[in-house]
Amino acid sequence: MELSFQTVLSQVMLGLNNGVFYAILSLGLAVIFGLLNIVNFVHGALYMLGAYVALLGYTMLGPLLGKPDFHLNYWVALIVAPLVVGLLGIGVERTMLRRLRKFDHLYGLLLTFGLALIIQGVFTNYFNVSGDAYDGKPESLEGAVNLGFMLFPKYRLWVIGISLLVCFATWFVIERTKLGSYLRAGTENPELVKAFGVNVPLMITLTYGYGAALAAFAGVLAAPIYSVSPVMGSEMIITVFAVVVIGGMGSIMGSIITGLLLGMVEGFTKVVYAPASSTVIFLIMVVVLLVKPTGLFGKES
Amino acid sequence: MNKSIWAALLLLGVLAPYVVYPVFMMKLLCFALFAMAFNLLLGYTGLLSFGHAAFFGGASYITGHLVKNSGLTPELGILGGTLFAALLGYLVGSLAIRRQGIYFAMVTLALAQIVYFLALKLPFTGGEDGLQGIPRGLLFGLIDLNRVYLVGGRPLGLNLYYFVFAVFCLGFWVVHRTIHSPFGQVLKAIRENEPRAISLGYKVDRFKLMAFVISSAIAGLAGATKSLVFQLASLTDVSWHTSGEVVLMTLLGGVGTVLGPLVGAFTVVSLQSELSSVGSWITVIIGGIFVVCVLLFRRGFVGELARLLKRTL
Fold first, then answer.
1. Is B105 in Cβ contact with A106 (below 8 Å)?
2. How many inter-chain contacts (A to B, CB under 8 Å) are there?
3. What per-residue confidence (pLDDT) applies to A63?
4. What whole-number distance in Å separates Cα of residue B68 and Cα of residue B120?
5. Cα(B174)–Cα(B9) distance, rounded to whole angstroms?
6. Collapsed DSSP state (helix, strand, coil) of residue B106
7. In chain B, whose CA is at the least distance from the CA of A249?
8. Cβ of B95 and A289 within 8 Å?
9. Which residues in chain B touch residue A123, judged by CB atoms under 8 angstroms apart?
10. Which residue, among B113, B192, B194, B205, would best test binding to A if mutated, counting the most A CBs under 10 Å from its CB?
């Protein structure tokens, strides 16, 4: 097969588009893991919830309020969904995860797995598994931009841009500000940080809420691209787990870069050998486990 | 544990098909065996595998293929499925033990997903439909597993039932012997304190890998048998839902107890058949049980009972 430079480049760009979702989600997992020491299995379901807040806000909120012409604006959804889901996350942390802190970390994984089943199950009951289209894409993001080598949809370009911005802002706050230094200190030694008068439990709650909000934010961004379905989260989370194993959860920048790179590799595989594109990330995980078991950015433990 | 308890359980297993619907009993036995295999890892070695459906479902497909398309007798088909699961367990295990704790769970989940993709794409698996109409055939070329006996006016597939019960007992015996062998003691030492086991000179990785292979082989045995009972190998068998279900069965019954997986499998399988009318709400119920179990009784039914009675069960 003749591979033109242009086809490769355009698939890699589309891959980058998936990559920013991997980056945001694995970043959220890494932030939560850093402070709470749990793997947030419900992350995929929160991402799905974010997409559904946007979808239902657009289609059902109006009729529900008695104003059939009302559609929740995309930009408003981009703020509201993370807030709603973030608050839900805070509730989960306060009522459930907090009680598990004394026990083995595996219980956190099991609890969040149960929550993921509940959320996914409820949505499977009311919505089509094959998914619904979200029609609320703002007009200003319709159309395509000429990148020189390809016509790229404006909306996808926006998704890549805003996601990178959010990722790097999160990195900046955690690695370069005073608040971030508290967080990092809390990761290393919570007892000592408590002794300095920092409210560590509150910090943990807010961190979990922020991670949940990030997932919902990604969900809203995804809604106009992929169809919104109850299983979109569980399909995503398993891939993101592989991303996290490859990158290691120890480094914020590491998880961002790994997510972006793997998205592009996946896009590249689509041109070279399409059937492998759904498994290539898992195969890379196998290679990384063989060569550098701690992950690309992992620290020796 | 008390000999009389064993005798009572054995008698229960022998008499069950005359009282309970045999297909329910066989499903229970297959899942109980699956949960026991899983418990060998989580309960006795401290490894949480989130990809055990790959062995259960993988063996189910291989057995189905061998019996249906290659015309092997059922016992050879099951043997083939079990060996496949052991081999797969060796591959997955050698990769997964390179990471500890939470990463171990994620690695097994991701590797199991590769098996899921293969089950979806490979030519002999039937894709979305799965492998249907797997024949039960003649055991050892002699005993017809389809044969039905009329007992008190009810048709009972006793040949199949007692075959499944025998397979279950074999699997149970292997798991039980493993736990109570010197090898099993080392596994428990690894669970309790891995650095100390290393400092005592044990090659911990080898023990973990061996435990993983035994566990996946038994999980495969359970899946292979299941494919003959239901005459079906499906994508559900290899999906992460099934991996989660076996975790729940073990957790609910009691991690690290001999009888726990049996009790857990009984609870979950009964729930599924009782609540089959509620459709996909069952996922919500299963999730709810997970949450309640993790928050309120982490020892599981048998574990809590053992604590009350102050003895090991």
1. yes
2. 116
3. 80
4. 18
5. 17
6. helix
7. B103
8. yes
9. none
10. B113
Residue A291 lies in a domain: no
Considering the domain boundaries, does residue A62 fall inside one? yes
Does any domain span residue B153?
A: yes
CA-based Rg of chain A, rounded to a whole angstrom? Answer: 20
Number of domains in chain B: 1
pLDDT of B215-247, one tens digit each? 999 999 999 999 999 988 899 899 998 999 999
Alpha helices in A189-279 (DSSP H): 190-195, 200-222, 232-247, 252-272
* Cβ–Cβ contact B1 with A under 8 A: no
Q: Does the residue A276 lie in any domain?
A: no
Which of A177-181, A208-212, B219-223 is least confident? A177-181
Residue A81 vs residue A250, higher pLDDT: A81
Domain-embedded: residue B282: no
Domain containing A145 equals: 21-238+246-254
Q: Cβ contact (<8 Å) for A114 and B279?
A: no
Is residue B245 included in any domain, yes or no? no
Q: Tell whether the model's pLDDT for residue A1 goes beyond 70.
A: no
Domain-embedded: residue B267: no
Give mean pLDDT, residues A5-34.
88
Q: Which residues of chain B have pLDDT under 70?
A: 1, 313
Assess A73–B contact: CB distance below 8 Å, yes or no: no
The residue range of the domain holding B102 is 18-239
Q: Which residue has the tokens 């030694």?
A: A189
Compare all CA atoms of chain A with the CA of B111 and give the residue at the minimum distance: A282
In a domain, A263, yes or no: no
Instruction: Give the pLDDT score at A274.
Output: 79
Place of tokens 């400092």: B199
How many domains in chain A? Answer: 1
If phi over 0 gives left and psi between -120 and 50 gives alpha, with beta otherwise, what is residue B173? alpha
Report yes or no: B251 at the A interface, CB cutoff 8 Å. Answer: yes
